[in-house]
Structures are given as structure tokens and as C-alpha cells.
Design brief:
Blueprint (H helix, E strand, L loop, with lengths): L8 H33 L2 H22 L7 H29 L4 H27 L5 H54 L7 H20 L1 H12 L3 E7 L4 E7 L2 E6 L2 E5 L3 H13 L7 E6 L4 H6 L7 E6 L2 H9 L1 H6 L9 E5 L2 H7 L4 E7 L6 H4 L4 H8 L2 E10 L7 H13 L3 E9 L3 E9 L45 H10 L5
Parallel strand pairs: 5-6, 5-8, 6-7, 8-9
Antiparallel strand pairs: 1-2, 2-3, 3-4, 9-11, 10-11
Helix pairs in contact: 1-2, 1-3, 1-4, 1-5, 2-4, 3-4, 3-5, 3-6, 3-7, 4-5, 5-6, 15-16
Length: about 500
């Protein structure tokens, strides 16, 4: 077995530094695959769980296969590094393009890529340990290699959500770590230059790999734009990846649309129907209302409707993603759509987790709007749980009212009535209703408070959709949307997320 280190401390440190980089790259590919699957398929818990499980299994397979490498350890290590760099570096871009182009069964492609990268990563560390083992005592060898391995994983686990994903995006981050793997291979070629018989061929392969990965890194913006151009039928006028979601705004003639993680949030053609139905049936019955809280709704449309009431003195908007509120308070086209509501002197914008903010503040409000995305994952599902609604009710004035968007009672009938049952479980009186929004279909809302609700007899503000005469019909449910018996959504099981996913899985939107 070859061992060219000759006891060199410098060489040992160089290899251990390589272990740090290798571990960082390995975890990065795992995080990229999990995040990409979450963006494209939803349900982040399921996607990360299955990706991590498949990846760790593949690493075990790679570690087992390493025992069959008995010759040319360094040359094999270099080849594996180049293979990891190319496969891992191009994986995110390839998967994104394949999903956009509908090039095949995406889950098969996803887990094939995860398995391939995992096997290659599983081969790396055993080879490094075998290269070092003649110069370092076994217990010291294991301690050093695993320490650097864990440190590399720690570094990327911190950098990925805070810096890499939000600022570089998943595709560019993949190419970056692919480059790092290729550079480790070139570094190993330099360290062992005197002991490698086929160094010229490996050097050429390494330089070609660096060239390809650098080209991918430089062109990742175009790759993303191309793929999203296939996904979205309209022209993309804004796209960014934030620490929380993928935000895409499209335009076709005078129709502006917002997508979060590919899910349509509004169309400017009919968003007024949704937001009028969300705000006015409740707020129009509260002439005493002065203070309003909006949870979610970072696009400012609900705030726009609330500000139509001159008696409203203050609106507090709590939205998790600062990129959303910045976009809709600064982009001129979007400010026209929301009536520049987020820049009103009556409005205070706070970027925070809604549940945490409610826990940390004691303010009481006359009207509360919960305009969250649909409960498609567990991080959002907690905002539809009984503990959250109990927390929300503490901030509701004695004669106040809250309204919750609650997905479609037609397409997701059980999900809708689960939200109703959850609100009722907190002791509030829930009054469900629905409205037709052409972009979404029949959509559901729920008013809740401590008093019985009666629809308004008149609307004192200018509306395009609602009238006092047609409002009572919103509270009538035909047979195919009628109530079904369901359990409340509790935080410890979040059954609503699983129900929602099952109901929407076969719906073509």
C-alpha cells in the first residue's frame, strides 16, 4: 500500500484541511438537495428526512466500497474528488432544469443524484484515513480526521442558511462547492506530485473540471432563468431566493402574479376578490375598530383594504420575510397594486415569526387578519394549530374579531373544516364562509370571535366585488363543500399538513 507522506507534519495538516473542505462540501450537497426538494415538492420535513436518510445510506455504501480500493490510494482519492465535484456541483442545476422541462420522474432523478453523491462522499474519508494511517497512531488518526470532518460540517451548516442559500441561491452554491472539491483534487495532485505515475492525465481532468464548474457558477443565473422560464408561462420580472422561500413575480400584459415556492399567491386580475372577502365581512361590522394586526400578508394587499376605513388609527403588519415586505414597499409596479399601503404612516412593518412575536408582545387589537400561506409544511402548519389560535385570542379585544384564510373548501374540504374545528377548539365562535376567486377557484375564510357574527347590512367603503346584498350567500355551503367531521390540528401531530398535502396532490391548479 502506498504511503508517500513520509511522516511530514505539513502533509498531514494539508490532508486534514482537505478533510475539512470535503466534509463541508458533502453536507452542502445534502442541504442543497433537501432545500431544492422542499422548494419544488413542498413538505420540508418529508423532503429533508428522506434526502438525509438516502444520503446517509449511500455514504454507508461508499464506506463499504472503499475496502475494495487496495492500490493507488492517492490517485483514487483525486478521481473521487473530481467525480464528487462534477456530480454534486451540477446536481442542483440539472435537477432544477429537469423539473422545469418535465424531463422525467423527478423523484427518481432526485434520489439517484443524492445516492450517487452520497456513495462518492462515503468513499472520501476512509481513503484519507488509510493514506494517513502509517504516520499517525490509530486513536490519534480517528480523533483528528473526525474532528476536522465535524468542523467542516458545522461551518457549512451555519453558512448555508445565513449566507449561501439567500445570497448565492441553490444552483450557484452547488457549483461553488463543486469547485471546492475540484480544487482539493488539484491540491492533492500538488502534494503527491512525486508519487503519482499518471499525474498528467489527472491534472488535465482536474483543470477541465474546474473550467466546467467555474463556467456553471458564472452562468448559474442564466440556468435558473431558463428553467423558471419553462415553469412559469409568463415573463419573470423579479426572482430571488430568500432564507425562507423562492419569490418569483411574473407579468403577462397587465396581469402581475406572485409565486412563493412555485405556489401562486395572487393574480392582479382578481386579487381584489380574495382580499375584499378576507377583510371586509369582518371589519365592516366593527365600527369601533381602531387597531388592526395583520399576520403574514407581506404583499400589502390586506393592509390596502384595511386602510379604506378612516377610523383605523394603526395597522401592525408582522411578516417573516423582510425580502417580501421590502419588495412590495419599494418596487413601483407593486406599490401601485397595493396602493403604497406599506409606506402609509399608519402602518408599522415588523419582520418576525408571527408566533414568537405574539408571545413577546402584549398589545391588544380590534381586528386581526391571519393571511398565511397554505399549510403545506410543518413550519407553516404550526400557524394553523390550536396553541397558535389560543395565543392569537389573547391579543383580541373583548369585542374584536379575527379572520383566517383557510384554503379551499372545495379542493381541500377536510383541510378547511379542520381549521374551523381548530378555531372552535380554542373556545372562539367560528363562522366559515367562501368566495370565488377565478385564479384559485372557490376559496375559504373563517371569522372568529367571542360574540355571534352577523353579516354587515352595508359597506361604507368603495368595493369592486362585495355588496351587502350578496354577502350573506358567502356563508352558505352547498353539499359538496358542507362540513365534515374532523379533529382539530394540534401542534404535536400537525395532521392538517398531511391532510392538505393528500388533498392537493391530485389537483391541477
Amino acid at each position: 500500500m502506498d504511503n508517500p507522506t513520509g511522516g511530514s507534519k505539513r502533509l498531514q495538516l494539508a490532508l486534514l484541511a482537505s478533510v475539512f473542505v470535503v466534509a463541508a462540501c458533502g453536507l452542502a450537497y445534502e442541504l442543497i438537495a433537501g432545500a431544492l426538494a422542499s422548494y419544488l415538492l413542498g413538505d420540508s420535513v418529508t423532503q429533508f428526512s428522506t434526502v438525509i436518510g438516502a444520503y446517509l445510506f449511500a455514504m454507508g455504501v461508499g464506506s463499504w466500497l472503499s475496502k475494495f480500493v487496495t492500490r493507488d490510494l492517492v490517485g483514487t482519492f483525486v478521481k473521487i474528488e473530481l467525480a464528487v465535484g462534477l456530480v454534486g456541483g451540477f446536481a442542483a442545476a440539472g435537477l432544477f432544469v429537469a423539473f422545469a422541462a418535465n424531463a422525467g420522474p423527478f423523484r427518481v432523478l432526485l434520489y439517484s443524484a443524492v445516492f450517487a453523491v452520497g456513495v462518492l462522499v462515503g468513499l472520501e474519508i476512509p481513503l484519507v484515513m488509510r493514506i494517513l494511517k502509517r504516520d499517525v497512531a490509530f486513536n490519534e488518526l480517528v480523533a483528528r480526521v473526525l474532528s476536522f470532518d465535524y468542523l467542516g460540517a458545522l461551518a457549512v451548516s451555519i453558512l448555508f442558511p445565513l449566507l449561501l442559500a439567500p445570497h448565492l441561491g441553490l444552483v450557484r452554491t452547488g457549483f461553488l462547492f463543486g469547485l471546492l472539491n475540484a480544487l482539493v483534487a488539484l491540491w492533492a495532485l500538488h502534494l503527491f506530485r512525486e508519487q503519482l505515475a499518471r499525474r498528467t492525465g489527472l491534472l488535465a481532468a482536474g483543470l477541465v473540471s474546474v473550467f466546467l464548474l467555474a463556467g456553471g457558477f458564472a452562468g448559474s443565473g442564466r440556468i435558473t432563468t431558463l428553467a423558471e422560464g419553462w415553469i412559469y408561462a409568463d415573463d419573470i420580472i423579479h426572482a430571488e431566493t430568500t432564507p425562507y422561500q423562492r419569490v418569483v413575480v411574473t407579468r403577462w400584459r397587465d396581469d402581475i402574479r406572485l409565486f412563493l415556492n412555485q405556489n401562486l399567491q395572487f393574480s392582479s386580475k382578481d386579487e381584489y376578490r380574495y382580499h375584499e372577502a378576507l377583510v371586509h365581512p369582518g371589519l365592516a361590522t366593527l365600527p369601533h375598530a381602531r387597531r388592526v394586526l395583520v399576520l403574514g400578508g407581506g404583499d400589502g394587499f390586506a393592509v390596502r383594504e384595511i386602510l379604506k376605513y378612516p377610523q383605523i388609527e394603526s395597522v401592525t403588519l408582522v411578516d417573516l420575510d423582510p425580502a417580501m415586505t421590502h419588495l412590495f414597499s419599494s418596487a413601483s409596479l407593486l406599490r401601485q397594486l397595493n396602493g403604497d399601503a406599506l409606506n402609509s404612516p399608519k402602518v408599522q412593518v415588523i419582520n418576525a415569526d408571527a408566533a414568537r412575536w405574539l408571545e413577546d408582545n402584549a398589545a391588544v387589537f380590534d381586528f386581526i387578519v391571519a393571511d398565511f400561506p397554505d399549510p403545506s409544511n410543518y413550519s407553516v402548519g404550526k400557524l394553523y394549530s390550536a396553541p397558535f389560535y389560543r395565543l392569537l385570542s389573547r391579543h383580541l379585544a373583548p369585542h374584536g374579531m379575527t379572520v383566517v384564510q383557510a384554503t379551499s373548501p372545495f379542493y381541500a374540504r377536510e383541510s378547511f373544516w379542520t381549521v374551523v374545528a381548530t378555531l372552535e377548539d380554542t373556545g372562539l365562535k367560528a363562522t366559515p364562509y367562501h368566495a370565488l376567486v377565478p385564479s384559485f377557484g372557490e376559496w375559504g375564510f373563517i371569522l372568529a370571535g367571542r360574540e355571534d357574527y352577523l353579516p354587515p347590512e352595508t359597506y361604507a367603503v368603495d368595493l369592486h366585488f362585495l355588496t351587502a346584498a350578496t354577502t350573506p350567500a358567502l356563508f352558505e355551503f352547498p353539499a359538496d363543500m358542507a362540513r365534515v367531521e374532523v379533529e382539530p390540528n394540534r401542534l404535536n401531530d400537525q395532521r392538517l399538513v398531511r391532510i392538505f398535502e393528500a388533498e392537493w396532490r391530485h389537483v391541477v391548479r
